[in-house]
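Quick illustration, no need to memorize.
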Amino acid sequence: MQVKIAQKEGLHFNATTARGVEFVIQPKEHISPLEYFALGLISCTGTDLVMLPQKQGFEAQNIAITADVEKSEQAPFRFHTIHIDYRFDSEADDQLARRWVLSSMESYCTTINTVRGSAKIFYSITHNGQLIADRESIHSGSADAMGEAAEAANAGACPA
């Protein structure tokens, strides 16, 4: 995948995605690079939350995902804590709903897997209006843990 930016002027950049979609990045006026990154985290896992249930004959509806991100105050600057709050409805039981979220977070979502080794990641899940997970943590970002999670996931892979 290749993405690119070209300076337009000052802090304004023309961006081009791998699919050729073009847009302007204006961090001071609109979305900052950190906000793009955080939105990328939750849009990736949100895509999985649509696709994983579909592969099992279900539909996740009313999906709302929020990320609370804390970054370090000193260099090297990075995200050090991420809490992702999932809220959605489906006809599935709570155990299967939890499995979809964990499959995304521990196996399929590239952006989450990219920061797993450097940030503490917590999640909460509200399924059909009931809180079924509250600030639980995912496995570490070690290669062994990620490999085990991928093997344990029983849903098809999603290219999110």
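The mean pLDDT is 90.
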